[in-house]
Amino acid sequence: MPHVPGLRSPYAKVGHLVYFGRMLDKIRLHAQGRLPADYIENLGEAKPGMFDGRCCGFLRVPYGDLKRRTLEGGTDEAVLDWAEQRGGRRTDEECAVWNSFLMKRGWHDRPDVVGRLRWRVEEAGALPPQPYWLVPARDLFSFAVFVVSFLGRGVSWKGHRYRMLAGGGWAADRGSHTP
What we know:
- By secondary structure, this protein is mainly alpha-helical.
- It folds into two domains: 13-123, no CATH class; 136-172, no CATH class.
- 49% of the residues lie in helices and 9% in strands.
- It contains eight helices and five strands.
- It has helices at residues 20-31, 37-40, 51-59, 63-72, 76-87, 92-103, 111-123, 134-148; strands spanning 13-14, 17-18, 154-157, 160-164, 170-172.
- Strands 3-4-5 form a three-stranded antiparallel beta sheet, with no helix packed on it. The protein has a two-stranded antiparallel ribbon with strand order 1-2.
- Strand 1 and strand 2 (17-18) form a beta hairpin.
- The model has no long low-confidence stretch (mean pLDDT 79).
């Protein structure tokens, strides 16, 4: 997705919530005719599972009402206060869970969600196309190195060799300097 001036990061907080400010930015940009078409299809509650709908559900405020209030004007904090008066204020713990969910979206999610997220990130130019199939191979290699490290009793560090002692300590091997 292209960079959109006036559209903040989903990680930016308004009050105690991430994403809320981005949703307000999208509402305002759409009303001004400055929101790219790629974003318009995901506005509001039309598509289940999209962030706007999830955020409104979390706040217990219909998207149409929130849109109307946002376009009336006022600060983001004032709109959030209005939403909390209508739907009820969330506890700090509920907000922490919400923030964690949104910030980790894509990690260990369904393949279709991860694929769409990866496509969006690559399209935005944030990452070059990657051979993602290598990720499990890299993890397996790291695990193999970890396991093999228990088979030896020595370590080479900054050109010196050290050996592990029976009590868990370390001692330098004599003449251990390696070129």
